[in-house]
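Below is a filled-in request sheet from our internal design queue. Each sheet records the structural input a requester submitted and the sequence that came back. We keep these sheets so that new team members can see what a complete request looks like end to end.

REQUESTER: design group, bay 2
PRIORITY: normal
MODE: inverse folding
CHAIN LENGTH: 230
BACKBONE (tokenized):
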């Protein structure tokens, strides 16, 4: 639909004027950016949304024996009589307030992992903004710089996400985690708990952070062949 819209504009407007106005762009490049960059921008936005979504979920570790689950920011425990729904799902907090408190997280490894995870989310937001700017800039050199900056931030976010996910199991020997997941839980080993879907989805998002920069580089530079055909 967007490609058809761009074609209509170029048919109505004088083609030579469009070429002069887009001094750094050829006609195939314009259509390629109009048709493919929004899709890449949507994919990056989807990864960003899933990454933040996983951060807020309490299903990083699950224990089916007592129907409890743990996350980086939230945890759930217990069942009401005759109910299959988890109750008491809340953020890690002090006994005196309902506000989230960093020092109440189960272990130092989880605190470090949470900070790196949040930093990765912020970098993904910035990267998504820079990717969107590529649609508004006419000069190729500027677009290349923005694309490079966006890609580097995505890669950095991917590294931070992977580091956070690797750091996360280091804290399995914490007393609170052992209370939920069994006394034999230790580094990178769980007793009665299993890895939850939030952790798995976060891992997939971190992998996509490495794939999308390569895809964006291909989209922005694969038009060189089209240029030779003009």
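RETURNED SEQUENCE:
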């Amino acid at each position: 639909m967007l490609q058809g819209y761009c074609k209509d504009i170029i048919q109505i407007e004088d083609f030579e004027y469009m070429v002069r106005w887009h001094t750094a762009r050829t006609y195939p490049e314009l259509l390629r950016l109009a048709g493919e960059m929004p899709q890449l921008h949507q994919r990056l936005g989807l990864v960003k949304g899933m990454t933040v979504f996983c951060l807020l979920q309490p299903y990083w570790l699950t224990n089916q024996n007592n129907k409890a689950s743990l996350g980086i920011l939230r945890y759930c425990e217990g069942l009401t009589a005759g109910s299959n729904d988890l109750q008491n799902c809340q953020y890690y907090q002090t006994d005196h307030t309902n506000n989230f408190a960093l020092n109440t997280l189960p272990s130092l490894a989880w605190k470090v992992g949470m900070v790196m995870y949040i930093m990765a989310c912020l970098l993904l937001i910035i990267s998504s903004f820079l990717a969107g700017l590529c649609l508004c800039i006419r000069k190729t050199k500027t677009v290349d710089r923005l694309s490079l900056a966006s890609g580097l931030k995505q890669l950095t976010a991917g590294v931070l996400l992977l580091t956070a996910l690797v750091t996360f199991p280091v804290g399995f020997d914490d007393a609170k985690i052992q209370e939920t997941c069994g006394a034999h839980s230790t580094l990178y080993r769980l007793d009665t708990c299993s890895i939850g879907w939030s952790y798995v989805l976060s891992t997939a998002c971190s992998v996509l952070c490495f794939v999308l920069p390569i895809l964006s580089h291909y989209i922005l530079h694969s038009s060189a062949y089209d240029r030779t055909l003009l």
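SHEET NOTES:
- The two ends are 24 Å apart (CA to CA).
- The first strand starts at residue 61 and ends at 63.
FILED BY: M.R.
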